[in-house]
User: Which sequence fits this backbone?
């Protein structure tokens, strides 16, 4: 039996190792679009943005629910008390009385805010009971079958009116904030994607260069031994080989770091064998400048944010004005009764009512309220100035990005052609070096120019895609599909 268990455990362990090797060896092929979609569903950035959006959504739902009536039941079942307390007798003297009693209460309330006036309307019904345990036969009840109340703190300031103006702006701003965060994810994923590609190009170039320098050194060593190469050239060849070995070590470390950064961005846990498909086939979209500026200020959260800031500043002005002189209303009308029998507390009901008009007016405050109003007014002016400055900054940023976009197509074409020429020149230099027609110095120059040209080409591809996703974020517009991103999000 023990042997069977040992064999079973050994088999499970071997199967797990095989499964791990299979998962590790399995390649994940990713285009840039695949990487972006994966990052938008699994990355920490996405999960954070999603959680923030959910919080904002439920905050808005809570705000809207606040305008509907609320039904509450409250009770004390029971409040028992046994103690000696000081009470005031009918003749005005204080005496100590032992008390052994319980108080029970239950009430049902319906509350409804009144957005038009800024007050709160409520209807309630309650039943109370007192039991005196020192007298087993004594129990008394009181009921308030119906109470209608209205309360308003100030007749000159309505907080609900301002909430109805500001809260929808906050919610709309949060929705556009989510779309902008998703475009940030697209941009960041693009950066990590090309970081890994460029690191891989460096690593591949370093590997090839190391092999080439090794071959060149052996050729140089052979020529030196037969007297066809100076010692200085041999030493230069050896130095180039050492530099190539050093560059290979550095590039491999950089490749590991950029790969891990990409996996983190994609939300992939552990080690994975990924292969990136470089998006070399580009669609150079012609963007109209008028459309660019129109979509930027139509779709971005900046416009909603400015409206919200101004509304909040205007709310503060209205609030400071109302704090100087307040006029409040408290009204109550109800029916009540009390008796030792519960069935009688709902018969022969008595009317109870009260009404109060409260006010508060400053006589002299040493200019404090005036200063508060001036501060609120100055804050509104500051917000308007800040909004105007932010619009100018946004326009300037858009203008610069538009100029970059107009030049990026030419930059990609130039660097691509330069990389092709540099590769051909290096191949020709290697062939001529093999027959002794090119010096080591010129061969190294050709190699360096080849590596730089290839790197610059893929760097220009990176700049193209990063700029494209920057423009998407600045406008919340998909220029390839010719549609608003924010509208897709709403659906």
Assistant:
């Amino acid at each position: 039996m023990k042997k069977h268990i040992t064999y079973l455990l050994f088999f499970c362990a071997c199967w797990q190792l095989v499964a791990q090797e299979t998962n590790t060896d399995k390649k994940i092929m990713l285009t840039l679009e695949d990487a972006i979609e994966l990052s938008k569903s699994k990355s920490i950035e996405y999960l954070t943005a999603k959680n923030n959006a959910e919080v904002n959504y439920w905050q808005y739902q809570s705000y809207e629910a606040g305008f509907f009536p609320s039904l509450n039941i409250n009770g004390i079942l029971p409040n028992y008390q046994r103690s000696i307390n000081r009470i005031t007798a009918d003749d005005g003297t204080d005496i100590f009385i032992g008390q052994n009693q319980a108080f029970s209460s239950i009430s049902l309330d319906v509350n409804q805010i009144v957005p038009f006036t800024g007050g709160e309307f409520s209807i309630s019904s309650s039943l109370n009971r007192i039991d005196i345990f020192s007298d087993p036969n004594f129990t008394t009840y009181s009921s308030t079958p119906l109470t209608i109340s209205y309360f308003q703190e100030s007749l000159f300031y309505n907080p609900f009116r301002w909430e109805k103006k500001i809260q929808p702006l906050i919610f709309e701003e949060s929705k556009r904030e989510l779309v902008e965060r998703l475009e940030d994810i697209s941009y960041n994923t693009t950066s990590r994607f090309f970081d890994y590609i460029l690191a891989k190009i460096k690593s591949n170039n370093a590997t090839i260069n190391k092999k080439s320098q090794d071959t060149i050194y052996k050729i140089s060593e052979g020529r030196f031994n037969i007297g066809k190469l100076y010692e200085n050239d041999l030493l230069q060849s050896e130095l180039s080989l050492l530099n190539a070995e050093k560059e290979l070590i550095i590039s491999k470390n950089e490749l590991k770091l950029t790969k891990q950064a990409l996996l983190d961005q994609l939300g992939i846990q552990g080690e994975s064998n990924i292969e990136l498909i470089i998006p070399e086939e580009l669609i150079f979209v012609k963007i109209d400048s008028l459309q660019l500026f129109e979509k930027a200020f139509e779709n971005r959260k900046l416009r909603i944010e400015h409206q919200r800031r101004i509304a909040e500043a205007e709310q503060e002005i209205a609030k400071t004005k109302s704090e100087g002189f307040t006029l409040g209303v408290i009204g109550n009308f109800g029916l009540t009764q009390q008796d030792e029998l519960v069935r009688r507390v709902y018969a022969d009901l008595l009317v109870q009512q009260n009404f109060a008009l409260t006010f508060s007016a400053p006589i002299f405050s040493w200019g404090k309220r005036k200063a508060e109003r001036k501060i609120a007014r100055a804050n509104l002016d500051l917000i308007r100035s800040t909004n105007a400055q932010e619009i100018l900054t946004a326009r300037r940023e858009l203008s610069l990005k538009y100029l970059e976009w107009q030049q990026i197509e030419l930059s990609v074409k130039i660097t691509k052609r330069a990389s092709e020429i540099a590769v051909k020149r290096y191949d020709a230099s290697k062939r001529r070096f093999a027959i002794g027609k090119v010096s080591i110095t010129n061969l190294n120059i050709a190699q360096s120019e080849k590596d730089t040209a290839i790197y610059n080409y893929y760097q220009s591809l990176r700049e193209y895609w990063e700029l494209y996703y920057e423009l998407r974020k600045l406008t919340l517009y998909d220029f390839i599909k010719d549609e608003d991103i924010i509208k897709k999000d709403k659906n």
